[in-house]
Amino acid sequence: MTLVKWKQNSYNELDSMVKTIFNTDWNFPSQNIQEWAPPVDIKETDKVFIIKSDITGLTKKDIKINIKDRLLTISGERQEDVNNSDDYYHYRERSTGKFHRSFNLPESIDEDKIKANFKNGVLIIEIEKHEDILPKEKEIKIN
After folding, report:
1. 92 lies in which domain range?
2. Which residues contact residue 98 at a Cβ distance below 8 angstroms, ignoring those fewer than 6 apart?
3. Which pLDDT value is given to residue 17?
4. Against a cut of 0.70, is the pTM above it?
5. Which of 39, 51, 130, 140 is the most buried (most CB within 10 A)?
6. One-character DSSP codes across 89-115
7. Is residue 9 in some structural domain?
8. pLDDT along the chain (143 residues), means of 10
């Protein structure tokens, strides 16, 4: 008996063949995802933490940022486009509905120095660190 190593690509190719046989490319079932969360990148520099999130299709009025007990929460809602009840979606990947993301903040941040900017569908939050906690270079003498 010979063992055949299973490959992820083999499954994807088989799945694609089955979909092609039984469905046309435009006949995927409509997905209605109620819960979603925008993707987030978090970067740290010597002076700040930077949170970047892609939240396309919303305005800054649709997004709320709150901080309570060292917990930063980003929330909002993307409304579903409802133009005509006779419309039929062949395929949907864009999520709609309410979302929220929460992040525990370290004690090294200054809650009074948090800035947010929203432009071209990208939310950028800059969270400054306390100056006295910032890493400083110090020379250590050798005895």
Report:
1. 28-133
2. 35, 75, 76, 77
3. 61
4. no
5. 51
6. -S---S--EEEEEEEEPPTTEEEEEEE
7. no
8. 49 60 50 71 93 93 92 90 73 85 90 93 94 68 75
